[in-house]
Design goal:
This protein is mostly helical and 486 residues long. α3 runs parallel beside α6 and α12 packs antiparallel against α16. The radius of gyration is 22 Å and the shape is globular. The longest helix has 32 residues. The N terminus and C terminus are likely disordered.
């Protein structure tokens, strides 16, 4: 009888220079097991492993492309095209994305943990989510034109002149955000599933690397289209195509084992919610600390995330369209910094430790975010420099918490607890974006105040980084045979 457990590859598994797929079938269960092995003992083997890992993570490129154009174009779309205020737009941004993430990712985590599809437990959700992300992006892309068919005044100067297009765009944002969370959580879990425990830092650094790569592409493309009349439509359509392409390498390369048929799936959404509730109630102390630090990091970053391109347009270029183009330049530099820093992150953590690196990145980002207000109406080069420095922090807090998480929980519950960790981020985003919008409203819609407001919480993260679990606690051996949540 073939043993049919679903665990990540162990540290001691043998590795061959040539990738070898071993397929075994159990006639009685009609299940298929696929094990992919790699050898990193040689330079050639390491290169092949890194390329394989890049492909496994590549659907995260589609996820990040969506986020890049959403936050670079979403706020300007609502402000410039549909004539909403900054504070009203912040309400939409704080609800559409974060709330959907809070609801969707834990539920998808529960169901994917027990998915018995022959394609694996993560890949069906990645593919399903990608299809609806594409639909949502296309709805947003053509929302002004669809609104025009229903009588919207394209040249109107108030939101009431664009009520149909606005409603359609918001619906597209909801569909897109729900679907990108269906896609994102299983992809993160898949990376943890298939990588050995001793390579989790490297795997999560690669995830950030791929996200940075996608963000660079998105913002470079965005800078070329920024001043076009139909820039919003063109970029959201390009985003739809990129998402469709991004899932292909992941689906082809990631070889999942089919889950044993004896594993119990949730019998209803109510049971899924029950498992989620129990997960929050029984969350390991180490993961609770990681989630708290993750919460504060996202609280500080979120106002910058949704208003950075608006800062360039409104504060640097006084409302001129050229500001949006430079906003894309700034975001491209931000992404490039995050991308290149990810190559060094694992090594720096080995030398200085995760706590020191995390705290230092929070200090750099916190100071930079506050300087957006100190140097309000900054020169373009200075605004781009400050934007780029924040990229270091983005790289760090999107890698270290995930690498720590998989070392303190059972692999059976990765999907569920990936959703729990993400919940701390989406709750943080919701509160942060909403409250920063109120700060901006009180300061005559000046987004620099919202960014600096986030910077204060980022500086709080400088201290909180030292409550992250110590390496000796994080690496304690877990009983992988039994889930934390039953």
């Amino acid at each position: 009888m073939v043993e049919q457990k679903y665990d990540r590859l162990s540290e001691s598994e043998s590795i061959n220079v040539k990738v070898q797929d071993v397929k075994e079938s159990d006639a009685s269960q009609n299940n298929t097991i696929i094990t992919t092995q790699h050898n990193t003992d040689t330079t050639g083997g390491l290169i092949k492993f890194m390329f394989w890992l890049f492909c496994v993570c590549f659907s995260l490129a589609g996820v990040q492309f969506v986020y890049s154009i959403q936050f670079a174009l979403g706020t300007p779309l609502f402000i410039n095209k549909f004539k909403l205020s900054n504070s009203t737009t912040s309400i939409i941004q704080s609800i559409a994305g974060p709330v959907s993430g809070f609801i969707v990712q834990p539920i998808i985590g529960v169901y994917s943990d027990s998915c018995k599809s022959k394609w694996g437990r993560r890949k069906p959700y990645i593919l399903f989510g990608a299809v609806f992300v594409v639909i949502g992006l296309l709805v947003i892309a053509f929302s002004p034109q669809i609104g025009g068919l229903f009588g919207d005044n394209e040249d109107g100067e108030s939101a009431s002149d664009h009520k149909f297009g606005l409603a359609i765009a918001i619906a597209g944002f909801v569909v897109m955000n729900l679907s990108v969370n269906i896609m994102q959580g299983p992809t993160r879990s898949l990376v943890s599933d298939v990588c050995p425990m001793d390579k989790q830092n490297l795997a999560n650094s690669m995830a950030v690397n791929v996200m940075g790569f996608a963000s660079i592409i998105a913002n470079i493309i965005g800078s070329f289209f920024a001043t076009n009349k139909n820039s919003y439509r063109d970029l959201f359509v390009i985003g739809a195509g990129f998402v469709a392409f991004s899932v292909v390498p992941t689906i082809i390369v990631a070889k999942e084992k089919q889950l044993d048929s004896s594993v119990k799936s949730p019998s209803s959404p109510l049971e899924a919610f029950s498992r989620i509730k129990k997960a929050f109630e029984t969350i390991p102390k180490e993961l609770a600390l990681i989630s708290l630090v993750f919460f504060v990091s996202w609280f500080g970053f979120s106002p910058f995330m949704v208003t950075n391109t608006s800062y360039f347009q409104q504060n640097v270029f006084n409302g001129e369209s050229e500001g949006l183009k430079f906003g894309f330049y700034g975001q491209a530099v931000f992404s490039a910094v995050s991308f290149f820093f990810s190559f060094f992150l694992s090594g720096l953590c080995n030398i200085f430790g995760e706590r020191i690196i995390y705290s230092a990145s929070q200090l750099v980002a916190g100071a930079s975010l506050i300087l957006f207000l100190v140097f309000n109406n900054a020169q373009p080069w200075l605004a781009i420099l400050l934007t780029g420095l924040v990229g270091i922090n983005f790289c760090v807090f999107n890698a270290i918490p995930f690498a720590m998480m998989v070392k303190v929980i059972s692999s059976k519950d990765i999907g569920l607890y990936m959703g729990v960790l993400n919940s701390s981020a989406v709750v943080s985003q919701t509160i942060s974006i909403f409250t920063s919008g109120r700060v901006e409203a009180a300061k005559h819609q000046d987004v620099a105040w919202g960014i600096a407001y986030g910077g204060l919480f980022t500086l709080l993260g400088v201290i909180l980084a030292f409550i992250l679990p110590k390496p000796k606690k994080v690496t304690e051996e877990l009983n992988e045979e039994s889930p934390l949540i039953k």
